[in-house]
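I'll show a record.
***
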Amino acid sequence: MYREDYDGANAQEKNGEDVFSKPVRAGKRTYFFDVKATKGNDFYLTITESKRKVERDGRFSYDKHKIFLYKEDFQKFTEGLEEVIAYVKANCAYEVVEKKEGDNFSEVNFEEL
């Protein structure tokens, strides 16, 4: 989702606001990949895991965990992620879950990362 009103010249005013956002739903979790602008009109990425849980009184709440990834680290992060994904695929038994009509989760294709 692109921010229609984003203007690079106004990034300083929009510091910390999303420039681009991609949610990925996966079961009880949702991952948010958000591009944000710094005061110097530079972009960085936040990755947030949000997991819905039920409180004792029946209300829903969300546990959130966030990491910040700066553009100078994109290449090393990508290389590390690709390496561990390749390791898991080569060394760990796992089932590929086929998405069925009516499923409430998004299929994540790690090949595209």
Observations:
- The CA atoms of residues 56 and 80 lie 39 Å apart.
